[in-house]
Design goal:
By secondary structure, the protein is α+β, with helices and mostly antiparallel strands. The chain folds into three domains: about 10-95, 2-Layer Sandwich (Phosphorylase Kinase, domain 1); about 100-290, Transferase(Phosphotransferase) domain 1 (Transferase(Phosphotransferase), domain 1), CATH 1.10.510; about 320-460, 2-Layer Sandwich (TATA-Binding Protein). It has 15 helices and 18 strands. The radius of gyration is 22 Å and the shape is globular.
Length: about 475
């Protein structure tokens, strides 16, 4: 009998929603309490070292202490050692709050960004979360789009404390410098590259500056903050302010971004100064409009560029559906379905019924999965994306064809994920439902790949549109 996943605190691991070769993320369901969580499983393999385990233990220890409305909640942890491998999958199991709203940056059109009012709303929440984390004496060190999630009501959640470090003792306020070279190149502060110790707080301030720019512009400002990047050099000289997208930013928010992205860490804006900046202290126009309006504002750029026409074509709205399994249906109504997630179209119409799908990178086609997968492979090869067949699965949805994909985006950041195809029948015709889920990499780059695949000559003629 193949080893299975154990129940964690009464939660059963139901559906894989992400992960790579070292870890997987599952949707976990507590049927008794009608509650849903996320469970991250970091596999313990024969070659897993004590040092690697200590890194994960440190992450859990830190994350457990951080209880705040804008920090993804850490619920519980359990370990299955290798000696039990015949019964259960060995691993470190981390039970976390489920970010049912998915990635914030999955909702943003590449090179367009979101409106200033929505950026203002979410930046205020990011500031509040980071202020709390720093007051607890912790530096995140890995602030980037893929670590900014949304809950079922559209509230921002900061996640992934794998690179976090304690830099301050809460009782005495005594601080220490940090010295590891860590983070992702487009989001790293310049001083992290100098190979000398650096102050903790300014590097997170730099990170939130990059995130604010990316929210407004739909792309990161440069591939790295070193002399090797021509865009970064142009930022230092000031030439870049005449270029798009910098020249379309309004003066007030531009002054905030430049304050957060000040090269010298000692002159860089602090979080307290950011809170007091005129752009931040103005009242939010979005906060009082409710979650449906929030979802509309958030996906405005995706509607304008036509992306949502692929994610939810008319055929998917009107298709005949069968009922979900009982357990799943309870969970759907209990914790995933909110006005916010429904307005964001985070439910896909599939052959087996309406299903929670936290990714908007999906589409429907007029050809069945077998033929469609061949065309998808052909297109990915043309786009220079590596791919290999994944395990073909079967569940209540029927047979699912899987493809593992990976590569590097324009900023030279690695991405990995899955393309899944399943049968979708409409108007007496066999078509496919195609879902693209990202494991690692920038959500905006993943959306660019999704769009490039849809518009590729082999795939485009068969894609259903609204």
């Amino acid at each position: 009998m193949a080893p299975k996943y154990p129940k964690i605190l009464g939660y059963e691991l139901i559906q894989q929603i992400g992960g790579g070769s070292f870890s997987s993320v599952f949707r976990a369901v507590n049927i008794e309490n009608h509650q849903v969580a996320a469970c991250k499983v970091i596999f313990i393999k024969e070659q897993t070292t004590e040092k690697e385990r200590k890194v994960v233990e440190k992450e859990m220890k830190l994350h457990k202490l951080l209880k705040h409305k804008h920090v993804l909640e850490f619920l519980h942890a359990a370990v299955v050692e290798r000696k039990y491998k015949d019964s259960y999958v060995p691993g470190i199991y981390m039970l976390l709050e489920l970010a049912a709203g998915g990635d914030l940056f999955d909702k943003i059109a590449p090179n367009v960004g979101i409106g200033e009012d929505v950026a203002h709303y979410y930046f205020g929440q990011l500031l509040a979360g980071m202020d709390f984390i720093h007051r607890e004496g912790v530096c995140h060190r890995d602030l980037k789009p893929e670590n900014i999630l949304l809950d079922v009501a559209g509230t921002l959640k900061i996640s992934d404390f794998g690179l976090a470090a304690v830099y301050k003792l809460k009782e005495s306020g005594k601080t220490r410098q940090l010295n590891e070279l860590c983070g992702s190149l487009p989001y790293m502060a310049p001083e992290v590259h100098y190979e000398t110790p650096y102050e903790a707080e300014p590097i997170d301030v730099w990170g939130i500056g990059i995130i604010l720019f990316t929210l407004l512009a739909g792309n990161t400002p440069w591939d790295q903050s070193t002399a090797q990047s021509s865009e970064f050099c142009q930022y230092i000289t000031g030439e870049i302010f005449n270029e798009l997208p910098w020249n379309r930013l309004k003066a007030e928010v531009l002054s905030l971004i430049c304050g957060l992205l000040t090269i010298e860490p000692e002159k860089r804006m602090t979080l307290a100064e950011a809170f007091a900046h005129p752009w931040c202290i103005r009242p939010s126009q979005i906060a009082k409009q409710g979650v449906v309006a929030l979802a509309d504002h958030l996906t405005e750029s995706l509607r304008a560029n036509g992306d949502l026409n692929y994610a939810m074509p008319d055929i998917a709205i009107s298709a005949e559906t069968r009922k979900d399994k009982d357990g799943d249906e309870i969970m759907l109504s209990a914790t995933h379905q909110s006005q916010f997630t429904q307005s964001l179209l985070l439910f896909s119409q599939t052959q087996s019924g309406r299903r929670y799908t936290p990714n908007l990178t999906r589409f429907y086609t007029s050809l069945g999965p077998g033929i469609m997968m061949q065309l998808v492979k052909e297109s990915l090869t043309t786009l220079g994306v590596k791919h290999k067949d994944g395990p073909t699965g079967e569940d209540e949805r029927g047979e699912i064809l899987r493809l593992r994909v990976g590569g590097y985006d324009k900023r030279n950041i690695a991405f990995k994920g899955w393309v899944e195809l399943e049968n979708f029948r409409y108007a007496e015709t066999d078509g496919s439902f195609c879902l693209m889920t990202r494991d690692i990499g920038n959500p905006i780059s993943w959306r660019q790949l999704w769009k490039a695949l849809i518009l590729s000559p082999a795939v485009d003629p068969h894609v259903l549109r609204k």
